[in-house]
Amino acid sequence: MTNEDIKAFITTVQPVATFDETGEWLNILVEPSQWKQLATDLRNSSFLFDYLFCLTCVDWKTHLTMVYHLSSTTQRLNIVIKSKLDRTNPEIETVCDIWRTAEFHEREVFELFGVNFLNHPDLRKLILTDDFEGFPLRKDFEDPINMIKL
Amino acid sequence: MYTETQVIKETKEGELVINMGPQHPATHGVLHLVITLDGETIKKIEPHLGYIHRSIEKMSESLNYRQFIYVTSRMDYLSAHINNLACAMNVEKAMQIEVPKRASVIRVLMSELTRIASHELWLGAMAMDLGAFTPFFYTFRERELITDIMEETCGARLTMNYIVPGGLMYDLHPDFQQKVKAFVKQFKQKVTEFEDLVTNNVIFQARTKGVGILSREDAISYGCSGPVARASGVSCDIRKIYPYEGYDTVEFDEVLDTAGDSFARYIIRVKEMNQSIRIIEQLIDNIPEGDTQAKMKAVIKPPKGEFYTRVETARGELGVYIVSEGGMTPYRVKYRSPGFSNLSALDHMARGSKIGDLMATMGTLDLVIPDIDR
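Output (structure tokens, whole complex):
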């Protein structure tokens, strides 16, 4: 199966998704509201994207972008799904009921970027202390005591 | 699909909540587990991380493409060399640079030596967690030879920093081949000692067989990789499925097991050491002559875009995700560390087992805490 097959499949289930093939892998940009449905479809499709090997977020100063790296353990396909989030009130559905690994990764993104994962079973801080204020991996984070600027 | 693990938020009457760590001999670092117990049965394990969180991802954003590699040695300090390799490969991919053949072969050799050293430390430490002290001294005897080789060649025993974008920092020490051959010879003679002491030990087998079972579906769903996933029957060796640095030209087997218990994870790692020896034997006499560094500009400025590389460390799949804006420093760096995903499966694996069995489960997950916290 090729990228064209994946594109054809995604166009049938989510017609508004846009594609970008400039990088190494096929990039798919979806709206945050469509992500949960698309994730379920991709997991259950014949491509069988069962392995979420990376889940992260990038702060673009004007908006946040969620980045999901998916692969299939049986067919060795790799795709990247991206979703733009509003910076003031970032919200997206959780996918930890589809891929269990997302539970910890989403908690990490929650504390470091402040993204609110809807319907997450246990959304608490994982690495930072409970009283930590601010989102350290955002570009406008300032900590005059602990941060050294080069 | 995976098996459901219920989220428990409240403690029932009669249940006991205990803290394991952050200072505990079996966690080999500052891992803090909050364990809910009913009698001796584990009801829930909740890892509290961050005792050694240095925010390496944020740090990397202010370092340039030559500097940020050195920080990654401090992530998974037992496979520092392979961490460096992942970052160097990512920069090379972005700059579209071909690494000289000699550098490539030396990188593979070093990676495999690191893997053996890491597995040997794990073997000794895990046996010690389960109450056997002798294997620790036996494994460290062989590991010491590798650290000596590393010290001679790279100048450091743990944080090697030998790999730079474009190749290697400098050429090999003249004694390298002879020392590695001596190590291989000694390792092959002594590897049976591990079998006698640990593998065939009745007490060890009783404590690990059928303990901490992880099914294939769960291993995939929890994002497990490396020996943990391979013990559950998931074929996930990056060296085999997405070969890098000429791993496709050497002969070795991907070791798989289907039991998914602690004993299977143990066996996988022991067999993997033998496979690494096989790779070293094939390459040690065939190191090509030539340069060890490709020509590169002093200031590295990769084009705008996103780059992802993954390598197989001793613990599993390490992914490095770099977002470049065309500047001297990366815009965003994400390390997908194998330990982080493997740890997330611990709650699921240990539920319902006795607290004494947790040592075996945790020991065979091979957790390195700086790798999890980053």
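Residues 54-373 of chain B form a domain with the Cytochrome-c3 Hydrogenase; chain B fold (CATH 1.10.645.10).
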